[in-house]
């Protein structure tokens, strides 16, 4: 019952706060007569979803969603694999970690034009940039988790003759799961940013392109509608990660 109450409050409270915020927004815009081009009311933005622009939003949401999901998945797989290799190899970790930190310090948007030059103006550049921007949080979080495995547990594994593969699969990765999913949650939000930046720079479709197109025509409701769809895609990806985390951690506790 306690878990159910916590789950219900975790859904009900955000919905209540969001509803109140939208209500205040609607009332403030109407009371102060804010022009639609500056800030449209939520009801006007909702009309974009149920009006003629619905098909257009869906048309542009599909390529953006595919690029976000594919970049996130590829960054997840490659990032975890590299973190495992770095956890095993002190030499590899010493060689790569300074460069990874340096790349994290560089503003990502400054590198976006290079990806356009390297991969062109199509799907490849946005996929590559989304992968790049998601990759480092996954590697750093996973590596931290793998290295924070309790020493006494590793010594016990050595004492019973467990192989390196068994230690990694049965001990290190389970202990690192909270770290891994913390990195994946960050990467889920970064994937959206990476794709939108790529679409801002060079694209003829996608929600980032639609935002710029509507902004150039002073169609603020269309801009906010496209942003809302991007938020929905990002929240969906984040929700999948959080749901997977809960299931895996629950299964892990059951095994223990």
Q: What does the secondary structure layout of this molecule look like, with pairings?
A:
Elements: H1 2-31, H2 42-50, H3 53-88, H4 90-105, H5 108-119, H6 123-147, H7 151-159, H8 164-201, H9 207-216, H10 220-255
Structural class: mainly alpha
Mean pLDDT, nearest integer?
Answer: 86
How many angstroms does the end-to-end distance come to? 23 Å
Report the C-alpha radius of gyration, rounded: 22 Å
CATH superfamily: MetI-like
Helix coverage percent of residues?
A: over 70%
Total strands: 0
Largest sheet entry: none
Number of domains: 1
Q: How do the SSEs run, as a string of H and E?
A: HHHHHHHHHH
What ranges have pLDDT less than 50 throughout 5 or more consecutive residues?
Answer: none
Shape: globular
Using the coordinates above, name the CATH class. Answer: Mainly Alpha
Q: What is the level-2 CATH architecture name?
A: Orthogonal Bundle
Enter the CATH topology name. Answer: MetI-like fold
Q: How many helical elements?
A: 10
Strand percent estimate = under 5%
